[in-house]
Amino acid sequence: MKPKDIAYIRSLFPVLQQNINKNPLVYLDNAATSQKPLSVLDAEKNYYQTINSNVHRGIHTLSQRATVEMEEARQKVQAFINAKKDYEVIFTKGTTESINLVASSIEPLIEAGDEIIVSYLEHHSNIVPWQFLAARKGLTLKVIPVDDNGELIWEDYLKLLTDRTKIVAVNQISNALGVVNPVEKIIKEAHKVGAYVLIDGAQAAPHKYIDVQALGADFYTFSAHKMYGATGVGILYGKEKLLDAMKPYQFGGEMIKEVTFERTTYAGLPFKFEAGTPNIAGNIVLGKAIDFIHDIGIENIENHENEILKYTTQKLSELENLTIYAKNAKYRAGAISFNLNIPNIHSSDVGFILDKQGIAVRTGHHCAQPIMKRFGITGTVRVSFAVYTTFEDIDRLIEGVKKAQQMLN
Ligand code: 7TS
C-alpha cells in the first residue's frame, strides 16, 4: 500500500493521534489487541443510542432490529471465514472461551485412553483447557516439539499421531514468535487417523485470508479485538456435524427449546452454545470490523504487514548484540520477538525504556511459557503489526532500542 493510503487509514484511528510520554504514539502491541477504527467506534455508540434491546426474544421493533443486526454480523463472519452455514459460527467472548467450549463440550466424543496433541508454540489458552480435559477423562496430552528456528518438527508430529489421537489443537500463527504453522498439512495428517483438529486462529484472522472449508478445520477460533473489533467477543467455528454431537457448554436462557422441572431440551445451532444475553453491541460491530478489513482488502493488509515485518527484521538484524527468535523460520507473520544480549536484564526493562519514548510493545512470556523455556529464556520483547503500522514506526522503534542498549549496557 502507498504511504498516502496508510496515512488515510491512520486518520481513521483516533487513538493513534495522541502523544504518549510526550512523543507521538507508536503502537506495536497489536498481537495483544488492535486499535479500533471510527466505523467500529461509531457503530458501537449508534447501537446503544438507537437500537439497544435484547435479541431473539422481543416482539417489539427495537429487539427485532438488534436481532437482525446481530444475525447479519454472524453472516459476515460466515463469509469472512467461508463457513458453509451461518449457524456453524458461534459467538463467544474470545478465543479463550472458544477453546474452553470445545474442550468441555467435546466430552461425549472422546473416551479414556484417547490422545490429544498440542504444540510447543501454543498460547496457554490452547494448552490448559486440554490439560484439564485430559485429567478429567484420563487422556494423554502429547506435544509437538520445535527446532531451533521455532518451527514444528514435522517428522515428530507424524510420530505422535496414532489411532488413539482424538484431538489436534495448534495455532496457525504463534503469538510469541510470529511463526506460521503449516496447518493445512497438519489437518490432513490428523484426519488420516480420524482426529478432530482445532486451529487457534487468534493471530491469523487479522492478517490473512481464512477459508475454513479449504483448510478442512473441524474447529477454528479467533478474537474480534485483535482484528479491529471490540473486546469481549470471539468466534468459534465448528463443523455442523460435530457441534450437533457435542453437549452444551453453559446452561440457561437462549440455549433451550423447552424447560420443565423434569427435563430440558436444547435449542439447535448456534443457540445451543450461546446461553444468556450475548455481547450484542460487540457482536454487531465485529461485522463493521470485517467491513473495514474488506474495504482495504485482506491481501493488501497481509502484503503491507509482510513488508513491515521484512523491514523490521532487517533493521533489528543490523543492531549488534541482539537475538531475534525464529529469525530463520520459513514463514513468519504479524510479529517479531527479540532480546538484547545484555546480562541480568529483563525484557520488561527494554519495554519500559521504549514506553518512555511513546513506543508500545509487549514484553515477558506472552502467555506462552513452554516456548520460552524451549529457548531457555523467561521472555522477549515482541513487536506486532497492524494495517496502520508504518516504516516510520519501525525507525522510531530502532532508535528506541538503540537508546535501551545505551542505557542498559
Ligand atoms: N491464542 C493465541 C494464539 C493468542 O495470541 C491469544 C491472545 C489467545 C489465544 C487468547 O485470546 P483472548 O482474546 O481470548 O485473550 N494473545 C495475546 C497476546 O499475545 N498478548 O495478549 C494477548
Give me some keywords for this one.
Aspartate Aminotransferase, domain 1, binds ligand 7TS, 409 residues, alpha/beta, 14 helices, 7-stranded mixed sheet, 4-stranded antiparallel sheet, Aspartate Aminotransferase, domain 2, 2 domains
Protein architecture, described:
The protein has 409 residues and is an alpha/beta fold. It contains 14 helices and 17 strands. It has helices at 3-11, 38-51, 61-81, 95-105, 128-137, 154-160, 183-192, 212-215, 240-245, 280-296, 298-317, 347-356, 369-374, 391-408, and strands spanning 19-20, 23-24, 26-27, 89-92, 115-119, 140-144, 165-171, 196-200, 219-223, 234-238, 256-259, 264-266, 322-324, 335-340, 359-360, 362-364, 380-384. The strands form 5 sheets. A 7-stranded mixed sheet has the order 4-10-9-8-7-5-6, sandwiched between helices. Strand 11 and strand 12 (264-266) form a beta hairpin. Helix 2 (38-51) runs antiparallel to helix 10, helix 3 crosses helix 10 (280-296) and helix 4 runs parallel beside helix 5 (128-137). The chain binds ligand 7TS. Ligand 7TS is lined by residues 31-32, 94-96, 123, 125-126, 171, 175, 200, 202-203, 223, 234, 362, 366-367.
